[in-house]
Amino acid sequence: MALINLANQEVKKLNLLALQLREFYQPTLGKTDLFDINGQLERIIGQNTQKMLGKDITLSSAFGDNIPPIRAVTDQVNKVFQELLDTVVQACGKKGSILVATILEEDMVLVRIENSECGIPAETISQAFEPFNMALSNKTSQDLNLAISYAYITLHGGTIEATFEDGRVTIFKVSLPIDHKVSTQHPEFTVRS
After folding, report:
1. How far apart are CA 84 and CA 34, in angstroms?
2. Which of 72, 74, 123, 125 is the most buried (most CB within 10 A)?
3. CA atoms within 13 A on the CB side of 58
4. pLDDT per position as a tens digit, 152-162
5. Cβ neighbour number for residue 140 with a 10 Å cutoff
6. Residue 45 CB neighbours (<10 A)
7. pLDDT digit string (tens) for 59-73?
8. Are 137 and 121 in contact (CB under 8 A)?
């Protein structure tokens, strides 16, 4: 019976991994829809609770009231939030706390994803969105995924930044305009040597 339970847990993990890979790497259609940020973040947080099993990591949310939907390419923005959450979970290792928060500020929706007690060092986080930056992880795709996240947010007329505060807190801040026509132009990347 113990082996059957173990096999069942492993199948659930594989199923979740296959779902996440399909969602992250599927080609985007580029079609914009109304995007409920709070609802989508809640769904992503729910999907990621499986990753917290066996770890002492608390994942909490503080969603602002009356956050209006934005015009966005749903799969692109979901990929950004998933990648940022993956990055802060990985930085936590086996212990820490993560907060995902939203707030409305004028005509922008601000999303804040932060981890405490387990931050990414300032010298590493300052290069987080540069393509092929291997400093954050030995995971082969993450170095490019954060650069792609930067491109997606830029195409949506928003901004994304990463900061390191108080020697132990990593904060990703994403701001997206409430009503914006998504650009089809690809942003330029600058690679520092």
Report:
1. 21
2. 72
3. 6
4. 899 899 999 98
5. 8
6. 16
7. 889 999 989 999 999
8. no
Ramachandran category for residue 134: left, alpha or beta (phi over 0 → left; psi -120 to 50 → alpha): alpha
Report residue 181 as tokens. Answer: 């026509």
Q: How far apart are CA 148 and CA 43, in angstroms?
A: 21
| 42: enclosing H helix or E strand | helix 37-48
- 3-class SS at 138? coil
DSSP, res 180:
-
Does position 150 have pLDDT exceeding 50, yes or no? yes
Digit-coded pLDDT (tens) for 4-27: 999 998 898 787 767 656 655 565
For 142, the token pair is: 């993450």
List CB contacts of 87: < 8 A, sequence separation 6 or more. Answer: 120, 128, 136, 137, 142, 146, 172
Round to whole Å and give the CA distance between 173 and 1.
Answer: 46
Helix (H, G, I), strand (E, B), or coil: what is residue 98? strand
Q: Which amino acid is at 37?
A: I
Q: Which of 22-31, 77-86, 154-163 has the lowest mean pLDDT?
A: 22-31
